[in-house]
Amino acid sequence: MVKNKVLLLGATGETGGDILNGLVEDGSFDVACLVRPSSASSAAVQELSTRGHNIVVVDLKGSFEKLVEAVRGYDTIISAIGAPDQTQQLELVDAAAAAGTKRFVPCAFMTVCPPGGIIGSRDDKESVYQRIWYHHLPYTIIDIGFWHQASVPRLASGRIDSKLIVARNEIYADGNVKSMLSDKRDIGRWVARIVQDERTINKKVFAHSEFLSQNDIVRIVEEKSGEKLELTHLSTTELKARREKAWADYVADPTSISKRLLRSIDDYNVSKYIRQDDTPENAKYLGYLDARELYPDVKTIGFAEFMDDFLADKIKRPYEGKHIGLMKPTQK
Which of 72, 180, 279, 281 is at 20 to 30 A from 143, Cα to Cα? Predict the structure, then answer.
């Protein structure tokens, strides 16, 4: 069997690592990893090489001719570049178009949301999508909801503090609005199916593991942990006001990682829980295909099953060892 030749940008990151695992597990792909020169000698990149992946080192902002040659010959390019670096994909899109890439998968992999000032990072991604459309480059945009791993509230006992990304136990409005969630372990499996499917060429696709409200999450966590959660309730007005302040703080200091994170958190909260953007119904309204309908055989990991694994210490904390703003450093 001839394997689909994939060039993956961001394989050492969280989403990129999930995608790589899914492609390898599927077995239908020959995956090379695109890395920037500043990362080429890192331990994470060396590990990719040890696992048998070809490492393609190229500067996205360097020689355009070298970039075109680096990406030539790959059937599919998948980008999982970091959130602050979205516009660095523009040169990669130009190179992919020049090289005749058969499918370009830009770094979407977020909640479903239209552009236009709702979520800042969504607007950064839109500029990449528009560059793809400018070139008539074949593409697939994949969104996956919000991670299970980023949706766990804090327990009063503190016994899971070292595994939390953001320790905010907040309920917005009445807590009944549902949004789409994905276990990180499902992301790569979805991507592997989607990028092999001719039906998804020049389409947007949404995939998710479960569709839950904040109250649903609280109920599951309390049942699984045996603890009563300590919660803070914010009204729609309070959440919107805090988001406005977070944006003002970020604009005043755009280089601050913590201020960018605070802005992003409330962008997502307003989009998901107030505007109700991240729903299957809205995704279809925006023109997305539903991965669950395309691939009904795919078995996903629900939030209750995830919590069993989480409480049994079977889940690796995202961004392990990193301390970014509200993220707690891993305790050893």
Answer: 72
Contacts of 194 (CB under 8 A, 6+ apart): 140, 142, 200, 205, 207, 291, 294
Longest dimension (CA), the chain: 59
- pLDDT tens string 17-48: 999 999 999 999 999 999 999 999 999 999 99
DSSP 331: P
- Residues involved in catalysis: 125
pLDDT tens, 211-251?
999 999 999 999 999 999 999 999 999 999 999 999 999 99
Contact 32, 3 (CB under 8 A): no
Query: What does the CA dihedral 305, 307, 308, 313 come to, rounded to 10 degrees?
Result: 130
Neighbours of 183 (CB within 10 A): 23
How far apart are the C-alpha atoms of 13 and 15, rounded to whole Å?
6
319 assigned to some structural domain:
no
Give me the number of domains the chain comprises.
2
Specify the pTM. Answer: 0.95
Q: Is the pLDDT of residue 326 over 60?
A: no
* 178 lies in the same domain as 189: no
Q: Do 52 and 107 fall within a single domain?
A: yes
Query: What crossing angle do the helices spanning 64-71 and 89-99 adopt, rounded to 10°?
Result: 60
